[in-house]
Amino acid sequence: MTSSEIIKLRLFNQQLAEKKITRPHELVSWMGAMQAQDYAMAKWAIGLRLPASDDTVVENAFNEGKILRIHILRPTWHFVTLQDIRWMHDLTTPRILSSIQHAFRFLSLDKKTLNRCNDVLAKALQGGRQLTREEIRSMLQRAKIDTSGLRFIHLLEHAELNRVICSGPRKENQFTYALFDERASAKTMGHDEALAELTKRFFTSRGPATIYDFAWWSGLSVSEAKKGIEMVKKKFKKENIAGKEYFFRAPASFKNEIAQSALLLPNYDEYVVSYKDRTEAIDKRHLAVILKERNAVFTNSILINGKIEGTWERTIKNNSVAVTSSFFSKQNKARQKLVDRAIIHYCKFLDKSLQR
After folding, report:
1. Which residue ranges make up each domain of the chain?
2. Could you give the CA distance from residue 206 to residue 247 in angstroms, rounded to a whole number?
3. CA dihedral in degrees (329, 334, 336, 341; nearest 10)?
4. Is there a cis peptide before residue 208, judged by omega within 30 degrees of 0?
5. Span 103-112, pLDDT tens digits
6. Are 181 and 65 in contact (CB under 8 A)?
7. What is the CA angle 168-173-178, rounded to 5?
8. Fewer CB under 10 Å: which end of the chain, C or N?
């Protein structure tokens, strides 16, 4: 398998080359979880992978609770479906909690304070109530719980990680929190069953990938990642490429020849952030620039034929959107035309006209 074949198969498996999934929650389920700290761009990450989708469709799926947003896997926001949240939470949360204990100590958030906060939240949200962050902040302050500085964020994160709260529907474009047990599915799994399931989801949707990619993405230890692939390895092909073991599926419908394409990737897109080793997505000619500016992970990227070729920014004003692109090298007319189509796709997703 060549580098080009790895790129083509990843584009296919990540639903970027051939879009067969039609609904937001089905796409999130296919991916397992999708990084979502930048909410607007995380919605685009979903829309980018669905045919004829728009921002309203994804927003409705979120408000209806088909997609939830919570700290899971690594200690950052992710989209996950209500059917998957409980077993995935059980599998990955212990390691996250262990990794952030130092932050609690630094902020003087002792066990008594954290548990008291959880109790206040559980009582205030019972019966299907949803409260915005500022409503919760005021409530905690009335309960004499200090929410200054970074304490408030970590109080909420701790409550999420202890399955007290999760995302509720948005209220006038503000995020709300609801009780985890009232909003999340009751589906649970044993540890090994959950580990096998997460391993299958990752390598099915993101292969070819390595065990180290999976460990990075899932937040699990390398030993657990190895255990996971050992349990499901019969379902995947394995190839040794340049001294690295890649696991993947090649679906029957996969065609090695994928049409020329340009995509406007959002920041933190799974095409890049899923892998510990991101060199496949980076042209060596641009490596120094990308590493210096951290474009590969933290900035909206322009992807042409599976390689990051530049960055883009958007400015929304009323019913129009302006998209500014910046390339690492001069692009020919054919490639620029592909990028122009990608920009139109993004405007359609937002249901806004392109500001020229």
Report:
1. 3-183, 191-248, 262-354
2. 9
3. -150
4. yes
5. 999 999 999 9
6. no
7. 15
8. C
